[in-house]
Amino acid sequence: MRSWKFWLGxxxxxxxxxxxxxxxxxxxxxxxxxxxxxxxxLPGVAVYFGAVWARTWRWHYMLRHIKPxxxxxxxxxxxxxxxxxxxxxxxxxxxxxxYILKRKEGVPVSASLATVVLERLFDGLVMLLFVFVTLPFAxxxxxxxxxxxxxSVLFFAALVVFLALAVRPARMSRVxxxxxxxxxxxxxxxxxHGLFDxxxxxxxxxxxxRELALIFASSTVIWLTETTKYWFVMQAFPFHVPFxxxxxxxxxxxxxxxxxxxxxYVGTFDAPGIAILAAYGVAKAxxxxxxxxxxxxxxxxxxxxxxxxxxxxxxxxxDFGRAVEERSAEAS
Length: 332
Fold this sequence. Notes:
This protein is mainly alpha-helical.
């Protein structure tokens, strides 16, 4: 992992941490953290795991074209994947959960990864929806409009490409084959030709308008539920902002965490969250205390439960590397 991507993530996290902590009243910050009513974290964590269960149902629904997998069997896999995202760079947990799913259920890694990519796409579209719905009530702070514009272009372009892949697979297969034959070295071509069919298999949910609507609706419920956790944690601190501002905060921080960063989204989660709250009159010391406690409350429970499920599912840390190798092996 000590590649240029790793160091790029470190650099971006440092920049965002600087933005988060610049001009901070540390005495006020520590006073805020010391006097917070942490009992409010309990309902917040409970609501968050409700959102994780909803994520499991969404993945179960998207996978059923490939193989039906029960929610009970899928939930530990989802939790381990989110734990992997929290402790390894480059969202390695996404590949890990596809690897574990293949080990448990025989689902090809490429096909399940396509559904994971779809999840991220719909998550991004819901984040953009949150931004646009809340803009009349909670305008974006200066500097974040460009970030939202960039992701709007990227996510909608990705949606168009995936719809084309799902609806016109034969035509897109010819385009894919043409590109492979002209762009890749001869030795690599046999390894990647088979990826297309397995990846498109994971996009079958996009072929039905009803299924598209259901996935988008479930994604919206997931993120409204997660925003409710933001609301519960807010009750532990001496400030109040409307729910629409928390929706905007949810959207912007989660868009920012798609940028490269250190494991756990250090900095990329915190700086935008603090900036959103500060723009709505929350003192920076209070906004920083709240955002950092919220970050830990989002990171720690799912990571701890994921580590427990790793033990129960007999998954070792070495499986992260084997997951990447498995993905490469499917291409050969």
